[in-house]
Amino acid sequence: MNTQELAREIKKIGREVNMETLGQTRNLYIPLHPVAPFDGVKIHRDIRYGPDERNRLDLFVPNSGSRKSLPVLIYVHGGGFIAGDKYTPGTPFYDNVGVWAVRNGMAGINITHRLAPRHQWPAVIEDIAAAMQWLQKNADKSGINTGRVYLMGQSAGAAHVASYIAHPEIYAPADNGLTGAIFMSGLYNLTTMEADNLMTSYFGNDPSLYSERSSLEGLKQSSVPV
Fold first, then answer.
1. What is the value of pTM for the model shown?
2. Rounded CA gap, 166 and 162, in Å?
3. Distance between CA atoms of residues 160 and 88, nearest Å
4. Could you give the CA distance from residue 212 to residue 114 in angstroms, rounded to a whole number?
């Protein structure tokens, strides 16, 4: 499929964002990405970074064996707070993020985290903090420069990344350890949102808590570039 054909197919999907249109978009892009194994990239799968079964990460590094200390891009998946994973076998997602990092001079880390409704706020802040602790302990042998750490999240993952930055009291006295952060289509102010089942599954049903569980004010006070 060339770019003009792809553009036509995207236009057919329309502008509404829902599970059907997301699936249609995903199906368009899957054939455009390779799947593992990837030339020049070594992937260490399912490294445990915490006690829960979902506390797993994939580490992406160059397979050249170089001991160069690399900056690292850490990716946090979305899934409406109740679903999602760092990797779906047979698809490019989200290996494509880690592979992109390696091919642009970085290491990559994709994490899987705990899910709502069994695990509610601040569970994923704690998971990200645990992954950061794993990174600090294993950076030297993994060839990672802990002075250049970038944290990225999409959708619910962006909300989790923002929450991690905005609520340092949850993992204090440890520092957030970040050089910068990237948010894609996230949720940052619960008080201005109409609470749906996905939002309440993670942030709870009590609106009186939404202000303190939002990220906006904490992000405004943070020095992390976003």
1. 0.94
2. 6
3. 20
4. 21
